[in-house]
């Protein structure tokens, strides 16, 4: 009778382990999807910010170009248009960020770095572990209890 009971308990334990594994897999999939959605939203906000900034900077660039060109012609001083060169570079960069391929080129470069320069991505003192976090937590809680006394 004990053999039948232990066999039944083993089967229940195995089903419970499978259930727990299935649940942890579902939880991880949900976390990955949530993190990806957050990343997509952040990227969308960055692109939207670039487009909004471009509107203001474009207007500034247009007014500045008009003013400097008019001043250079009226005063016959061509060097007055010199600030348009660096401002032009900034404008082109913003257009590329807002509507161009900058994001795709950045992604390609990031993939290249991850593939061939992995050591650049290592964290100082390595990845945090449960033990290192727990040690820090304990030192802070003991420090707090000392300060309270």
Number of helices: 4
Count of domains: 1
Please provide the count of β strands.
Answer: 0
Beta-strand share of residues: under 5%
Using the CA coordinates, give the radius of gyration: 30 Å
Largest sheet: none
Q: What is the H-and-E element order?
A: HHHH
**Averaged pLDDT, please?**
91
Helix content: over 70%
What spatial form do the alpha-carbon principal axes imply?
elongated
Uncertain runs are none
Question: How widely separated are the two ends?
Answer: 60 Å
Q: Structural class from helices and strands?
A: mainly alpha
GO biological process, one term: positive regulation of plasminogen activation
Keywords: Membrane, Transmembrane, Transmembrane helix
Pfam families: DUF2368
GO cellular component, one term: plasma membrane
